[in-house]
Amino acid sequence: xxxxxAAGNWKMNGLKASLAELxxxxxxxxxxxxxxxxxxxxTLVAQAAGVSGGIAIGGQDCHTAxxxxxTGDVSAEMLADAxxxxxxxxxxxxxxxxxxxxxxxxxxxxxxxxxxxxSIICLGESLAQREAGETLDVIGTQLExxxxxxxxxxxxxxxxxxxxxxxxxxxxxxxxxxxxxxxIRAKLxxxxxxDGNAIRILxxxxxxxxxxxxxxxxxxxDGALVGGASLKATxxxxxxxxxxxx
Length: 246
Ligand code: PEP
Description:
Elements: E1 4-9, H1 19-27, E2 34-39, H2 45-51, E3 56-59, H3 76-82, E4 86-89, H4 92-97, H5 102-114, E5 118-123, H6 127-131, H7 135-146, E6 156-160, H8 174-192, H9 194-198, E7 200-204, H10 209-216, E8 223-226, H11 233-245
Parallel strand pairs: 1-2, 1-8, 2-3, 3-4, 4-5, 5-6, 6-7, 7-8
Helix pairs in contact: 1-11, 5-7, 7-8, 10-11
The site of phosphoenolpyruvate has 13 residues, from strand 8.
């Protein structure tokens, strides 16, 4: 039985005052079947960990090394030291803005494990790839290349995030979400056996309170990675409630 996961990605948004949103979330009763995670910008990770109560805190990226001459980067060990328990890797904005490859994402995922944290590995097709009928090929290749061999339900979460749905208000049809999530599940089970059944698969891309319930009813959707709607406690709480009730 997989626990559900509501994960918020604040991206490059949030000043100290934004911690009030986290405090508001932390004041709500803990859901029974759902884990909660907020990934604030790096500047807020340590402070967030101090006020988040039962809500886990994560990073949005990390370097492959534990320390060294890498100006501007942060290691998984540093994130762990600041109170993080998970790190997002391979977000499409990192893949696009910083040229991150599947091989790099895989190495980062291993660095995250080495620090004792969970890797949230993001996959997603572009609109051109979807329109060309390449979605499953693209997702299969990214999944294979970005996920290290020792993945388990405890150390890995997969997030399917169609690039064209991120921040656009567009979402795939429920059938399209089911097709990709079922495909990812089958690939995980084929590669990892029973561990493949324990790895949670999140959907990400314009999840809102208004569409959460229908998305969470889709097979093999174990939760969501939420961008914009995680910035406001009331919106994210509504998504948490919809997930816990699903
Ligand atoms: C994201 O960037 O991970 C994301 C899903 O963003 P949004 O919810 O704003 O589409």
